[in-house]
Amino acid sequence: MLGELREEVLKANLALPAHGLAALTWGNASGIDRSSGLVAIKPTGVPYAQLTADEIVIVDFDGEVVEGHRRPSTDTPTHLALYQAFDEIGGIVHVHSPWATGWAQAQREIPVLGTTHADFSPHSIPLTRPLSDEEIASGYERATGAALVEAIAACGPLELPAVLARGHAPFCWGRDPAAAVEHAVMLEQVARISLLTVVLDPSVAPLADAVRDKHFARKHGPEAYYGQR
Questions:
Q1: Which of 190, 131, 204 is nearest to 160 (CA)?
Q2: Which of 9, 90, 159, 168 suits 175 as a labelling partner, its CA being 20 to 30 A distant?
Q3: pLDDT tens across 80-129, in order?
Q4: Gap between the Cα atoms of 132 and 167, Å rounded
Q5: What domains can you pick out in the chain, each with its CATH number?
Q6: Which residues are annotated as catalytic?
Q7: SS (H, E, C) 67-109
Q8: Rounded to an integer, what distance in angstroms lies between the CA atom of residue 38 and that of residue 67?
Q9: CB proximity list for 32: less than 8 A, separation 6 or greater
Q10: pLDDT in tens, 121-151
């Protein structure tokens, strides 16, 4: 079932340690088949070196395993909340990459300080709101997904391809699993450059709006002209 999607999700998961985004088993990638409403996701706790396409788990929107002999990622409810909220999302990546996770643990959004960030998103990378004790106890992963959805809502997932889960780590998304991986790589670089910038000048001002908007527009949208057609 969904052999092509399983392969895409396998490649996305294997790309995480290859890009230095995930140590041990600290991360997961998923993809969705919108026609069937089924999601392919990494099995929980399985080392990347042991992953095969057959190890990828297929779940429905209720999180029930449809196919596969492993338990799905513990973050599955978070992924499902994002897929259910935004049709534009076709792939999701969650990692504990050092630079972006540092901002999440410091509970600081990543401001738009330069054009590298503006190429990625015209918005600061926000933090999710704090979760209540009741949310944590009754359905932590689902509540994390709900908080991510709230953080994305004002901008939409196309302009805001990543959010920092407060005190936790980043979630990134894209039109497919490969795009989600690319966004995770870009976020990690933005997080690193931004931290270096803040260290060099703690009072640095945000990038000028006109420059920010120009850099995003030339790479995204109907009038984009970056790259080859």
A1: 190
A2: 168
A3: 999 999 999 999 999 999 999 999 999 999 999 999 999 999 999 999 99
A4: 13
A5: 3-217 (3.40.225.10)
A6: 119, 226
A7: ECCCCECCCHHHHHHHHHHCCCCCEEEEECCHHHHHHHHHCCC
A8: 10
A9: 5, 38, 39, 40, 83, 89, 90, 91
A10: 999 999 999 999 999 999 999 999 999 999 9
